[in-house]
Amino acid sequence: MDSPATKKKKRRKYHKYKNPRDKLEYDILRNRYHKLNNKCYNEYRDRLENGIHNNPKVFWRFVKDRRKGSSIIPTQMSYNEDIANTGLEIAYKFADYFSSIYKPKTNLTTLPTTSAGVGSLGSIHITKENVLEKLNLLDIHKGAGPDGFPPVFVKR
User: Fold this and answer.
1) Which ranges constitute the DSSP H helices of the chain?
2) Distance separating alpha carbons of residues 88 and 21, to the nearest angstrom
3) How many CA atoms, within 13 angstroms, populate the side-chain half-sphere of residue 90?
4) What is the pLDDT along the chain (156 residues), one digit of tens a residue?
């Protein structure tokens, strides 16, 4: 297969001499290159999607690269034979997958008890400012807490 360098040489030659045959050869090479590039990208994307079950770190690499402005995140993803086409749908697919493998270590449904042994929320005072203050203190480089959400999702 012809390399991108060969394609580049043909392009330069065409622009220098304006020979129609050079243009034809360049167009052929360009079409081959684009077909090969698309094929390689699709194979890469398929391997990535199929490998997410075995290596969840791939997801975090996606997130990290996305924050840097990289465009390697696919525009489409499938999980459980269902296809997601938007960022929100893809996020829900990841949530479905991770919720199916995550097992909480503690029972978070119990309420704090008072001295009488009865659950009480009356003494807890939560304000919007308190919540925002605590959210701003989160380190986005840390792992997920007991709720399963990583700080990068909560802070953004």
Assistant:
1) 4-17, 20-51, 57-67, 87-101, 128-136, 151-155
2) 48
3) 13
4) 567 778 788 888 878 888 889 888 888 988 988 999 889 888 877 777 777 777 778 767 766 776 776 555 567 777 778 888 887 888 888 788 777 777 666 665 565 555 555 555 667 778 888 888 888 888 888 888 777 888 887 766
pTM for this entry: 0.37
Same domain, 96 and 113: no
Question: What does the block give as tokens for 4?
Answer: 């991108």
CA distance 126 to 130: 7
Do both 46 and 12 map to the same domain?
Answer: yes
* DSSP state letter for 106: S
What residue numbers bound the domain in which 121 lies? 109-156
- For residue 83, give the 3-state DSSP assignment: strand
- Our count of domains for the chain comes to 3
Q: Is the dihedral of CA 77, 55, 146, 137 positive or negative?
A: negative
Q: Rounded CA gap, 54 and 127, in Å?
A: 41
Total count of residues recorded for the chain: 156
